[in-house]
Amino acid sequence: VLGLLVWTLIAGTDYYLFPTFGWVMFVAVFYWILTVFFLIIYITMAYTRISQVPWTVVGLWFNGSASVLYLIAAIVDAASVDKVERGSHNYNSWAASSVSSLLILNACYLLKNCYLSLKVRSRVLI
């Protein structure tokens, strides 16, 4: 839900005029689609039928890469907010999207998912 929030906040502005917001859009859309894909795999329990794939490693790499790219996107997003447009719709949406990117990074991918994937992975190795 938070990834979709970042996506819609930026998509509702003139982001196409600034290449940096294109990067943030790419990260938000890419990981939102991948998250929905993995959600469908887990809801349908397709991972039990595809036993050749090490799902704990896939989850760890997915969450780790999402953490790194969302960190970069949040920094780029926050640095690209132009103070000249303060008070406009673009400024408010871009500021809210940078805060949402940081929330996604910290709350979802880094703390919860990456930590849990690492914990499950370490349990498998032991």
Number of distinct beta strands: 0
What's the structural domain tally?
1
What is the straight-line distance between the termini? 34 Å
Main β-sheet description: none
Protein name: CKLF like MARVEL transmembrane domain containing 8
Pfam families: MARVEL (PF01284)
Subcellular location: Membrane
Keywords: Membrane, Transmembrane, Transmembrane helix
Describe the structure.
It is a single chain. With 126 residues, the protein is mostly helical. It has one domain (2-125). Helix content is 78%, strand content 0%. The protein has four helices and no strands. The protein has helices spanning 2-11, 19-43, 55-80, 89-125. The model has no long low-confidence stretch (mean pLDDT 76). It comes from Latimeria chalumnae. One of its GO terms (cellular component) is membrane.
Question: What tags apply to this protein structure?
Answer:
single chain; 126 residues; elongated; mainly alpha
Give a brief outline of the structure.
The chain has 126 residues and is an all-alpha fold.
Topology:
Blueprint: H1 2-11, H2 19-43, H3 55-80, H4 89-125
